[in-house]
């Protein structure tokens, strides 16, 4: 499936099922990685135009529901030796990280508990302001975990890595956007990658929607703000990148000021991920 067709499919309402044949074809097309039952698994290096080395940085949703045979392929076929789990402790307790031969899972807790979300905030301005605020907080409280990912890129430039949260959308999307922008990806490339989460979560869409509904006391999908919060519009992540520019002077400023990287380390990351 070509990029235009993927983009059209990604525009499907999150609460409507994708046609099974279209979903299967899309999930077998780059930048998706065709591992059976994988949730939202993609290679950041397969975006077009490419700014990141292919086969180096992977993103996904939680691995708990994957069969063991699929998880094993991350090491045996793609050479991944380190997985960074961006979930909080409650999520890890409910759905523990699986053990995968040859792979180390790294987890660091957020510095503080995330602020409570309100659907009212996402009902306003099409959800853009709510996402900008949420992703700015993610970039702040998950700084220790993000810093470990960048440290890996500095220290092990040829060793593939994967990072994930639960759906592979918010915390994963925040980190992916930072990496992509540092690599020089344009707005349309970053936005398109973010929007592909709509396709990537299709195998677990009903489960993930149910989890999110339960988090808000069992609200209906038509509750104001719920559709926005569960959607994957590219404008959400671009609003976050604008916030990064406003608060930290750009991604490089964030890496230095929040994650503690030196200027030399930032340049090393850029060289190590460059396509």
TrEMBL record:
Pfam families: Y_phosphatase3
PROSITE patterns (alphabetical): TYR_PHOSPHATASE_1, TYR_PHOSPHATASE_2
InterPro entries: Prot-tyrosine_phosphatase-like, Tyr/Ser_Pase_IphP-type, Tyr_Pase_AS, Tyr_Pase_dom
Highest taxon in the source lineage: Eukaryota
Membrane spanning residue stretches: none
Molecular-function GO term, any one: phosphoprotein phosphatase activity
Domain Tyrosine specific protein phosphatases: 132-178
PANTHER family xrefs: TYROSINE SPECIFIC PROTEIN PHOSPHATASES DOMAIN-CONTAINING PROTEIN, TYROSINE-PROTEIN PHOSPHATASE
Record's protein name: Tyrosine specific protein phosphatases domain-containing protein
Species: Rhizodiscina lignyota
Species classification: Eukaryota, Fungi, Dikarya, Ascomycota, Pezizomycotina
């Amino acid at each position: 499936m070509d990029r235009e067709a993927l983009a059209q499919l990604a525009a499907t309402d999150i609460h409507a099922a994708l046609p099974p044949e279209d979903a299967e074809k899309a999930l077998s097309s780059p930048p998706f990685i065709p591992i059976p039952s994988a949730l939202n698994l993609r290679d950041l290096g397969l975006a077009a135009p490419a700014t990141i080395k292919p086969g180096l940085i992977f993103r996904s949703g939680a691995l708990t529901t994957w069969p063991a045979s699929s998880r094993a392929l991350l090491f045996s076929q793609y050479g991944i030796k380190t997985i960074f789990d961006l979930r909080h402790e409650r999520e890890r307790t409910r759905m523990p990280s699986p053990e995968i031969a040859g792979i180390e899972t790294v987890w660091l807790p957020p510095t503080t508990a995330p602020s409570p979300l309100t659907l009212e905030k996402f009902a306003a301005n099409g959800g853009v302001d709510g996402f900008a605020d949420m992703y700015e907080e993610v970039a702040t409280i998950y700084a220790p975990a993000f810093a470990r990912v960048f440290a890996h890129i500095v220290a092990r430039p040829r060793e593939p890595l994967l990072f994930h949260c639960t759906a592979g959308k918010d915390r994963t999307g925040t980190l992916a956007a930072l990496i992509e922008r540092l690599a020089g990806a344009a707005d349309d490339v970053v936005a398109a990658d973010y929007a592909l989460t709509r396709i990537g979560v299709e195998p677990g869409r009903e489960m993930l929607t149910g989890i999110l509904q339960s988090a808000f006391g069992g609200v209906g999908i038509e509750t104001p703000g719920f559709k926005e919060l569960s959607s994957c519009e590219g404008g959400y992540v671009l609003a976050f990148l604008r916030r990064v520019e406003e608060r930290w002077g750009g991604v490089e400023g964030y890496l230095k000021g929040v994650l503690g990287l030196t200027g030399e380390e930032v340049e090393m990351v850029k060289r190590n991920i460059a396509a």
